[in-house]
Automatic annotation (TrEMBL):
Residues 19-467 form the Major facilitator superfamily (MFS) profile domain. Keywords: Membrane, Sugar transport, Symport, Transmembrane, Transmembrane helix, Transport. The chain crosses the membrane at residues 12-33, 53-72, 84-102, 108-130, 142-160, 172-193, 312-334, 346-364, 371-400, 438-463. It is a multi-pass membrane protein. This is Putative polyol transporter 6. One of its GO terms (cellular component) is membrane.
Length: 501
C-alpha cells in the first residue's frame, strides 16, 4: 500500500496539470499587456503627442492599480472561490482591452490601462494559488511555475505583436496591439467554468464531499487523495473523524475573518517569518531591474547603438524568446534541484550580467565614436540577465510565495506579496527614465547590480528550502526553534512520515 502511494506521488497527474495550464492562461493576458506596451509606447508617443512623463505614467499605472486588484482578489477568492476569481479577472481584462484598443485620446487610454491593472492584480494573485492548491508536493514547483511561464509567453507575444502591427498605419497599429488582448479574455472566462474548484477552498467552506471528489481526480491513487484530504481537514481546523459526506462546521478564522490581525498585528513567529520571506522575494524580483529591461529594452538597445526602429523591435523579440525559453527550463528544474539553489544561482548570474551591462552602456555613453564591441556585449548582457532571472527569481517568486502561507492565510497573505510586487514594478517602470537621466543609464544598471547583491544575501539567510514539503508542513518549516507549531503540524508530520518512510 505504501509503495503504491509513493509511486503515485512521483507521477505527474495529467488532470491536475491540465487544470493548472488553463488557470495559468490568465497570466498570458497580463504578460501580453506588459510586453506589448514596450513597443506600443514608441507609436503612442508619436500619435498622441505626449511627453516622457506621460509615457512613464501610462507604463507604470498598470502596476499601481494591480496593487488594488491583488488586495481585493485575496478577499474575493476566499468569498467566491479560486475559480470564479479567475473569471472575474478575465472580465476585467476584457473591459480594459476594449478601452485601450479604442483609445481616442490619452485619458481614455489611461483609463483602460487602469482597469487592466486591476485585472493584473487578480491574475497575479489567483493563478499561482490555484495551481499550488490543486497540485501534489512532488509536482507543485512545476505546476505553480506555469503562470510565470505564461507571463513570459504573453510578453513574447506582445513583442511579436509590436513587430507585426507596427507595420500598419500609425493610428491603427498601436490600437490593434492593445485591443487584441480582449479576445483570449472571452474564451478564458468560458473555459474556466469547466474546471474544478480548489479542494482546499472547498474544505474551508466545509464542503468535504466535493473536495474529496476533486482530490480523487487530481491525485494518482485513492490513498494519496485520502491522506491529502485528512491533512487539509486538520489544517482547516476540522476534526479528523468528521464524516466527509456532510457539510462540516469550519472555524470562523478559516473563512478569512481575522486574517489581517493574524498576519500583521499579532502574527506567530513562524507566520512573521513567512510574511517577511514573501514580501522580501516579491520586493527583490523587481528591485533588481527586470521591469526596466522588459519594458524599456528598445530604449536600452537604442542607447547601446541600434537606431533602426525595426531592428530595435526585433532585438526586443529576442528578450521575449530568451525569457520564455529559460522559464520553460526552470519549470522542469524546480522540483529536482530545489527552490533555494536555483534562486542563488539565478541571482548570482544576474549580478554579473547587470555589472557587464552597466559597464558597456557607460563606455558607449562616454565614447564619441561607435563601439561595436560594446553594442554586442550590451545585447548579450541583456539576454544573459533575462536568462538568469528566468531560471530562478522570476518563477520561484510566485512558486515560493504561493506555497509557504498556511491555508487560512494563503489567499490574503499572497495578496500582500503581490501588492509589494506591483508597487516595486510600478516604482521601477515609472522612475527608470528619470533615474537614468539623473545618474546615467550605465549607473542605473550598476545600482540594480548592487540591489541584486543584497537580494542574494536575503535569499541565503532568510529562505528555507521548500522542495517536496506539503503545503500543510510549511508553518513547521518556518518555526525557528525547529519544534512543531501545534498539534495539527505534529499530526501531519506523523502521517506523512509514516506513509513516505
Amino acid at each position: 500500500m505504501e509503495m503504491s502511494f509513493e509511486e503515485g506521488k512521483e507521477k505527474l497527474n495529467k488532470y491536475a496539470c491540465a487544470c493548472s495550464i488553463v488557470a495559468s492562461m490568465i497570466s498570458i493576458i497580463f504578460g501580453y499587456d506588459t510586453g506589448v506596451m514596450s513597443g506600443a509606447m514608441i507609436f503612442i508617443k508619436e500619435d498622441l503627442k505626449i511627453n516622457d512623463v506621460q509615457i512613464a505614467v501610462v507604463a507604470g499605472i498598470l502596476n499601481l492599480f494591480a496593487l488594488v486588484g491583488s488586495l481585493a482578489a485575496g478577499r474575493t477568492s476566499d468569498q467566491i472561490g479560486r475559480r470564479y476569481t479567475i473569471v472575474v479577472a478575465s472580465i476585467i481584462f476584457l473591459f480594459g482591452a476594449i478601452l485601450m484598443g479604442y483609445g481616442p485620446n490619452y485619458a481614455v487610454l489611461l483609463t483602460g490601462r487602469c482597469i487592466a491593472g486591476i485585472g493584473v492584480g487578480f491574475a497575479l494573485m489567483i493563478a499561482p494559488v490555484y495551481s499550488a492548491e490543486i497540485s501534489s508536493p512532488s509536482s507543485r514547483g512545476f505546476l505553480t511555475s506555469l503562470p510565470e511561464l505564461c507571463i513570459s509567453l504573453g510578453i513574447l507575444l506582445g513583442y511579436v505583436s509590436n513587430y507585426c502591427f507596427g507595420k500598419l498605419a500609425l493610428k491603427v497599429g498601436w490600437r490593434m496591439m492593445l485591443g487584441i488582448a480582449g479576445l483570449p479574455s472571452i474564451f478564458l472566462a468560458l473555459g474556466i467554468l469547466k474546471m474544478p474548484e480548489s479542494p482546499r477552498w472547498l474544505v474551508m467552506q466545509g464542503r468535504l464531499a466535493e473536495a474529496k471528489e476533486i482530490l480523487f481526480q487530481v491525485c494518482n491513487s485513492k490513498e494519496e487523495a485520502e491522506i491529502r484530504l485528512l491533512d487539509i481537514k486538520l489544517a482547516a481546523g476540522i476534526e479528523e473523524s468528521c464524516n466527509d459526506d456532510v457539510l462540516a462546521k469550519v472555524p470562523t478564522n478559516s473563512h478569512g475573518k481575522g486574517v489581517w490581525k493574524e498576519l500583521i498585528i499579532r502574527p506567530t513567529p513562524a507566520v512573521r517569518w513567512i510574511l517577511i520571506a514573501a514580501i522580501g522575494i516579491h520586493f527583490f524580483e523587481h528591485a533588481t531591474g527586470i521591469e526596466a529591461v522588459v519594458l524599456y529594452s528598445p530604449r536600452i538597445f537604442k542607447k547601446a547603438g541600434i537606431t533602426s526602429k525595426d531592428k530595435l523591435l526585433l532585438a526586443t523579440v529576442g528578450v521575449g524568446v530568451t525569457k520564455t525559453t529559460f522559464i520553460l527550463v526552470a519549470t522542469f528544474w524546480l522540483d529536482r534541484i530545489g527552490r533555494k539553489r536555483l534562486l542563488l544561482t539565478s541571482t548570482g548570474g544576474m549580478i554579473v550580467a547587470l555589472t557587464g551591462l552597466g559597464f558597456c552602456l557607460t563606455m558607449v555613453e562616454h565614447s564619441k565614436e561607435e563601439l561595436v564591441w560594446a553594442l554586442g556585449l550590451s545585447i548579450a548582457s541583456v539576454y544573459v540577465f533575462v536568462a538568469f532571472f528566468s531560471i530562478g527569481l522570476g518563477p520561484i517568486t510566485w512558486v515560493y510565495s504561493s506555497e509557504i502561507f498556511p491555508l487560512r492565510l494563503r489567499a490574503q497573505g499572497m495578496s500582500i506579496g503581490v501588492a509589494v510586487n506591483r508597487v516595486m514594478n510600478a516604482t521601477v517602470s515609472m522612475t527608470f527614465i528619470s533615474i537614468y537621466k539623473a545618474i546615467t543609464i550605465g549607473g542605473t544598471f550598476f545600482m540594480f547590480a548592487g540591489i541584486a547583491v543584497l537580494a542574494w544575501g536575503f535569499f541565503y539567510f532568510f529562505l528555507p528550502e521548500t522542495k517536496g514539503r506539503t503545503l500543510e508542513e510549511m508553518e513547521t518549516l518556518f518555526s525557528r526553534n525547529g519544534k512543531k507549531s501545534g498539534n495539527v503540524d505534529i499530526e501531519i508530520q506523523r502521517r506523512n512520515g509514516y506513509v513516505q518512510h
